[in-house]
Amino acid sequence: MIEMSKILLDMVYPRRCPVCGKIISKKKSYVCDECKSKVSKISEPRCMKCGKALLVKEQEYCLNCSKKDYYFERGVSLWNYDDTMKKSIANFKYHHRKEYAQFYAEEFVKEFGDYVKQLSPDGLVPVPIHWTKYIDRGYNQAQVIAEEIGKRLNIPVLEGVLVRKKRTIAQKQLSESERARNLEHAFYVSEKWKTALRTLNSIMIIDDIYTTGSTINLCAKKIKEAGLKQVYFGVLCTGFSC
Prior knowledge:
By secondary structure, the protein is of the alpha/beta class. It is 39% helix and 14% strand. The protein is globular.
């Protein structure tokens, strides 16, 4: 019965490639074969703090991480945030292509699954969106990504740890200083998690995009203020470094 329901669902809502947007003819595939090479993975050397691509092998940290202190221990990112991934993630977030998360998570786990297992986080914490955006989209993209990753790595998703109490304007429109002001007082740790967090060793924050790190850093700060010692993060894409 479940298999039949899935077949009918695929007929009504056929799976589309998260890169080109065309219907995928190959069963049990999340992406067109020819599109696999169109996404640009971040390669070494990477920043040892945020995971951004570095242009110089001798560098250990990107420009931002060499100048600033962050509350998170370390982060990993899978793809460069180029035009291909900008289009893919925009469709995922704003055009109801929720199923793209299966491809994102599959690739993330292939690249970082062993690393995440070594960290052994007690749970994944998705960056929350404001409730008004949730109504508009019907889902939180970070939550969907976290659930797909958690399913593959057998790591629980800790729902409701962070709450977004302030609807902020899009970060991509702002400078670094404006981003910090825009996010001020945007997040807090929910009361039901404040005691529980003190019993955990580490968590991994999950989001779709990392640019300057303002959002993830503030999330890490709030979680550490609640008593957790180690905070890592994993994202799909990050902006180019310098």
